[in-house]
Amino acid sequence: MNIENIDLKKLDKSGLKTLISWASNEGWNPGKNDADVFWDTDPNGFYGFYYENKLIAGGAIISYNKEFGFMGLFIVHNDFRNIGIGNKLWHLRRDRLLQRLNANASIGMDGVLAMQPFYNKGGFNIAYRDERYEFKSDITPFSDLVSPINKEDFEKINDYDINYFGFDRSIFLNNWLRMPESKAVKYTEENEILGYAVIRKAETGYKIGPLFANNEKIAEELFKWCLSIAPNEPVYLDIPTTNENAVNLVKKYNGKYIFECARMYYGKPPKTNINAIYGITTFELG
Questions:
Q1: 8 confidence band (pLDDT: 50, 70, 90)
Q2: Measured distance CA(74)–CA(46) in Å, rounded
C-alpha cells in the first residue's frame, strides 16, 4: 500500500469505539463507559486512517475550548505497523489539533517510554513521569467528611478541578461525574471542597481518576473510600511521580507497579499544583 495516498479522516462514534477496543486488546484497560464520555467531550476530536473502508489507525485530538489540546488513544492496527503509518498519522494529528486551537495554545499527551524520543522530536517535552499501580481492594474505615458528589456540587467541583487540570473542562466533567458503573466523591470541611475522586469500572477491575486533594491526609481518605467500594477487584491509580506524597501513598498501600509513561507538553505546561494531583484522570483525554 502507498501511505502517501492515505488521507486523514474524522472518525464517527463507531470508529472511536473501535480504537477503544484496540486499546483493550493492547492491555490499556480502558473504562467500560469511556467511549460515551470521550465522544460527548469533543465529537470532532477523533481522526484516523482508513484502508479499503476499514479503520487501520487513529487517535484523539481533543480541544478544550480552543485553550488547550490533548492527544491520546494513538493506535495503529497490528496488521499495518512498521510501514510508516504511525509516523504520518501522528504528525497529521498534531498539526490538525494545532489548527483547532487558539494561537500559542499548548498540547498535552502521555507518552510510553519507547515513544518518548519520537514525541520529543515532534516538539513535546517531558514534564513528569506517570506510574500506574495496582492495589487490592479493601474495606477500610474512611472519614465521614467523604460524601457522594451530587448535581448541586457541580459548579464547585468544576472550579476546584480547574486548579489541577489547568483549564475548564466542564463538558467532560459533567459526563465523567455521572458515568454508569462509576462513583464520584468529595471531601468537604465547612462546606468547602478540599478534594475529590472518581472511580470507574474498567475492563479489568476499577480505575481511580482523578484523585485531587489539598493534602496527603485528604487524598488518603478519598483513596480508602475508593478501595472500599470495589471488593475483591483490582484497583488502579496513575500518579505523577513528582508528587512525593502520592509516591508515599502507593507505597503505604503496597501498590504493585504496572508500567509508566510521561506527561509531555507541546508549548508551555498548564499552571497546576502538581502536589495536589494524586491520581491522573486519564491517559487518553488528560
A1: confident
A2: 10
Would you place residue 141 in the very low, low, confident or very high pLDDT band (cuts 50, 70, 90)?
confident
Q: Which residues contact 120 (CB under 8 A, 6 or more apart)?
A: 126, 264
Contact 226, 85 (CB under 8 A): no
Amino acid present at 172:
F
**DSSP state, 151?**
G
Q: Are 63 and 16 in contact (CB under 8 A)?
A: no
Tell me how far CA of residue 63 lies from CA of 133, 189, 202, in angstroms. 29, 34, 25
**Residue 182 Cα distances to 94, 205, 267, 283, 285, angstroms:** 32, 12, 33, 18, 17
Name the residue among 234, 225, 204 with its Cα closest to residue 32.
204
- Closest listed residue to residue 157, CA positions, set 190, 189, 184: 184
Q: Is the pLDDT of residue 7 over 90?
A: no
